[in-house]
Amino acid sequence: MILIRDDDVILHSSGKYKDKEFERFKYVHEQICRAPTKLLHCPAILCKEIQGFPEAIDYIKIETAAGRMRPYLHCLDHTDWTTNSNQTIKDMLQECDGWFNEYLNCQYQVWATPWGSTSEAAHQAADWLGVRLETTDETIDYKLAVKAIRQHGSVDILENRTVLMHWWEKGLSIFRYNGE
Protein backbone atom coordinates (compact mmCIF):
# COMPACT_ATOMS: atom_id res chain seq x y z
CA MET A 1 0.00 0.00 0.00
CA ILE A 2 1.18 3.51 -0.86
CA LEU A 3 0.05 6.15 1.61
CA ILE A 4 -0.77 9.57 0.14
CA ARG A 5 -0.19 12.12 2.90
CA ASP A 6 -2.22 15.18 1.96
CA ASP A 7 -1.11 18.16 4.09
CA ASP A 8 -2.96 21.36 5.06
CA VAL A 9 -6.50 19.91 5.15
CA ILE A 10 -8.15 22.34 4.84
CA LEU A 11 -6.71 25.83 4.66
CA HIS A 12 -8.65 28.64 3.04
CA SER A 13 -7.21 29.32 -0.40
CA SER A 14 -6.52 32.75 -1.81
CA GLY A 15 -5.64 31.38 -5.22
CA LYS A 16 -7.18 29.14 -7.84
CA TYR A 17 -9.31 27.18 -5.36
CA LYS A 18 -10.73 30.13 -3.41
CA ASP A 19 -14.28 29.18 -2.38
CA LYS A 20 -13.71 25.76 -4.00
CA GLU A 21 -11.44 24.23 -1.36
CA PHE A 22 -13.74 21.35 -0.45
CA GLU A 23 -14.47 20.53 -4.09
CA ARG A 24 -10.74 20.33 -4.83
CA PHE A 25 -10.06 18.21 -1.74
CA LYS A 26 -12.90 15.85 -2.72
CA TYR A 27 -11.58 15.62 -6.30
CA VAL A 28 -8.11 14.67 -5.06
CA HIS A 29 -9.61 12.01 -2.78
CA GLU A 30 -11.69 10.57 -5.60
CA GLN A 31 -8.58 10.30 -7.78
CA ILE A 32 -6.74 8.43 -5.02
CA CYS A 33 -9.72 6.08 -4.65
CA ARG A 34 -9.35 5.04 -8.29
CA ALA A 35 -6.63 2.65 -7.09
CA PRO A 36 -8.05 1.29 -3.81
CA THR A 37 -5.70 -1.68 -3.64
CA LYS A 38 -2.60 0.48 -4.19
CA LEU A 39 -3.26 3.94 -2.68
CA LEU A 40 -4.72 5.18 0.61
CA HIS A 41 -5.53 8.85 1.24
CA CYS A 42 -4.15 10.15 4.55
CA PRO A 43 -5.35 13.75 4.91
CA ALA A 44 -3.33 15.65 7.51
CA ILE A 45 -6.00 17.63 9.38
CA LEU A 46 -5.70 21.16 10.77
CA CYS A 47 -8.32 20.95 13.51
CA LYS A 48 -9.12 24.67 13.72
CA GLU A 49 -9.00 25.53 10.03
CA ILE A 50 -11.14 22.58 8.89
CA GLN A 51 -14.00 23.84 11.07
CA GLY A 52 -14.65 26.40 8.32
CA PHE A 53 -15.52 23.46 6.06
CA PRO A 54 -18.23 21.41 7.81
CA GLU A 55 -18.96 19.49 4.61
CA ALA A 56 -15.34 18.32 4.58
CA ILE A 57 -15.62 17.10 8.18
CA ASP A 58 -18.71 15.04 7.31
CA TYR A 59 -17.06 13.72 4.15
CA ILE A 60 -13.88 12.67 5.96
CA LYS A 61 -15.93 10.98 8.68
CA ILE A 62 -17.85 8.94 6.08
CA GLU A 63 -14.79 8.06 3.99
CA THR A 64 -12.80 7.07 7.10
CA ALA A 65 -15.60 4.80 8.33
CA ALA A 66 -15.69 3.19 4.87
CA GLY A 67 -11.93 2.53 5.00
CA ARG A 68 -11.08 4.87 2.12
CA MET A 69 -9.21 7.39 4.31
CA ARG A 70 -6.84 7.32 7.25
CA PRO A 71 -6.77 10.83 8.76
CA TYR A 72 -3.57 12.11 10.29
CA LEU A 73 -3.23 15.08 12.59
CA HIS A 74 -1.35 17.96 11.01
CA CYS A 75 -1.83 20.27 14.00
CA LEU A 76 -4.38 22.33 15.86
CA ASP A 77 -3.60 25.22 13.51
CA HIS A 78 -0.96 25.90 10.90
CA THR A 79 1.85 26.88 13.25
CA ASP A 80 5.00 25.14 14.44
CA TRP A 81 3.92 23.61 17.73
CA THR A 82 7.19 21.68 18.10
CA THR A 83 8.89 24.81 19.48
CA ASN A 84 6.61 24.79 22.54
CA SER A 85 7.14 23.08 25.89
CA ASN A 86 6.36 19.42 26.33
CA GLN A 87 3.23 20.22 28.37
CA THR A 88 1.93 22.75 25.83
CA ILE A 89 2.41 20.19 23.06
CA LYS A 90 0.65 17.51 25.13
CA ASP A 91 -2.28 19.86 25.72
CA MET A 92 -2.54 20.57 21.98
CA LEU A 93 -2.34 16.88 21.07
CA GLN A 94 -5.03 16.02 23.63
CA GLU A 95 -7.29 18.79 22.32
CA CYS A 96 -6.86 17.43 18.79
CA ASP A 97 -7.47 13.87 20.02
CA GLY A 98 -10.77 15.02 21.52
CA TRP A 99 -11.66 16.80 18.27
CA PHE A 100 -10.93 13.68 16.18
CA ASN A 101 -13.08 11.55 18.49
CA GLU A 102 -15.97 14.02 18.54
CA TYR A 103 -16.09 15.02 14.88
CA LEU A 104 -14.50 12.13 12.95
CA ASN A 105 -15.32 9.23 15.31
CA CYS A 106 -11.73 8.04 15.12
CA GLN A 107 -8.34 8.52 16.71
CA TYR A 108 -5.31 9.64 14.79
CA GLN A 109 -2.21 7.46 14.95
CA VAL A 110 0.17 9.84 13.15
CA TRP A 111 1.06 13.45 13.88
CA ALA A 112 2.34 14.74 10.53
CA THR A 113 3.94 17.98 11.66
CA PRO A 114 3.72 21.15 9.57
CA TRP A 115 6.91 21.81 7.60
CA GLY A 116 8.31 18.53 8.90
CA SER A 117 9.32 20.21 12.15
CA THR A 118 10.48 18.18 15.11
CA SER A 119 11.91 18.52 18.60
CA GLU A 120 12.65 16.29 21.57
CA ALA A 121 9.64 17.74 23.41
CA ALA A 122 7.40 16.95 20.42
CA HIS A 123 8.62 13.34 20.26
CA GLN A 124 8.10 12.92 24.00
CA ALA A 125 4.57 14.34 23.81
CA ALA A 126 3.69 12.11 20.83
CA ASP A 127 5.08 9.06 22.65
CA TRP A 128 3.08 10.00 25.75
CA LEU A 129 -0.15 10.01 23.70
CA GLY A 130 0.84 6.88 21.78
CA VAL A 131 1.05 8.45 18.33
CA ARG A 132 3.87 8.46 15.81
CA LEU A 133 5.41 11.81 14.90
CA GLU A 134 6.09 11.88 11.16
CA THR A 135 8.32 14.53 9.60
CA THR A 136 8.74 15.21 5.90
CA ASP A 137 12.06 13.30 6.03
CA GLU A 138 10.04 10.07 6.08
CA THR A 139 8.06 10.93 2.95
CA ILE A 140 8.71 11.29 -0.76
CA ASP A 141 7.53 14.44 -2.53
CA TYR A 142 4.82 13.66 -5.07
CA LYS A 143 6.84 15.23 -7.94
CA LEU A 144 9.69 12.83 -7.20
CA ALA A 145 7.16 10.01 -6.88
CA VAL A 146 5.78 10.75 -10.35
CA LYS A 147 9.32 10.77 -11.77
CA ALA A 148 10.06 7.40 -10.13
CA ILE A 149 6.82 5.92 -11.50
CA ARG A 150 7.63 7.14 -15.01
CA GLN A 151 11.11 5.63 -14.83
CA HIS A 152 9.89 2.33 -13.37
CA GLY A 153 6.64 2.15 -15.33
CA SER A 154 4.56 1.22 -12.30
CA VAL A 155 3.41 2.64 -8.97
CA ASP A 156 4.85 -0.49 -7.36
CA ILE A 157 8.18 1.32 -7.02
CA LEU A 158 6.52 3.28 -4.17
CA GLU A 159 5.13 0.28 -2.29
CA ASN A 160 5.22 0.81 1.50
CA ARG A 161 6.17 4.47 1.07
CA THR A 162 4.40 7.68 2.01
CA VAL A 163 4.01 10.26 -0.75
CA LEU A 164 3.66 13.86 0.43
CA MET A 165 1.37 16.25 -1.42
CA HIS A 166 -0.99 19.14 -0.78
CA TRP A 167 -4.57 19.08 -2.03
CA TRP A 168 -4.05 22.47 -3.69
CA GLU A 169 -0.94 21.57 -5.70
CA LYS A 170 -0.94 21.32 -9.47
CA GLY A 171 0.20 18.36 -11.51
CA LEU A 172 -1.22 15.45 -9.57
CA SER A 173 -0.24 13.11 -12.39
CA ILE A 174 0.56 10.29 -9.95
CA PHE A 175 -3.15 9.50 -10.10
CA ARG A 176 -3.11 8.99 -13.87
CA TYR A 177 -1.35 5.71 -13.24
CA ASN A 178 -4.53 4.42 -11.61
CA GLY A 179 -2.62 1.80 -9.67
CA GLU A 180 -1.52 -0.05 -12.80
Question: What can you tell me about this protein's structure?
Answer:
By secondary structure, the chain is α/β, with parallel strands linked by helices. Helix content is 36%, strand content 18%. The chain contains five helices and seven strands; from the N terminus they run E-H-E-H-E-H-E-H-E-E-H-E. The protein has helices at residues 21-32, 54-65, 86-104, 120-129, 142-152; strands at 2-9, 39-46, 72-75, 110-112, 132-134, 140-141, 162-166. Helix 1 (21-32) links the parallel strand 1 (2-9) and strand 2. Helix 3 packs across helix 4. It is globular, with a radius of gyration of 16 Å. The two termini are 13 Å apart.
Could you provide a short overview of the structure?
This protein is of the alpha/beta class.
Number of strands: 7
Largest sheet, spatial ordering of strands:
3-2-1-7-6
Residues in helices, as a percent range = 25-40%
SSE series: EHEHEHEHEEHE
Structural class: alpha/beta
**Outline:** globular
Helical stretch count? 5
Enumerate the spans where pLDDT stays under 50 for 5 or more consecutive residues.
none
Largest sheet: 5 strands, parallel
- Beta-strand percentage? 15-25%
| Averaged pLDDT | 91
The end-to-end distance, rounded to whole angstroms, is: 13 Å
Rg on CA atoms, Å? 16 Å
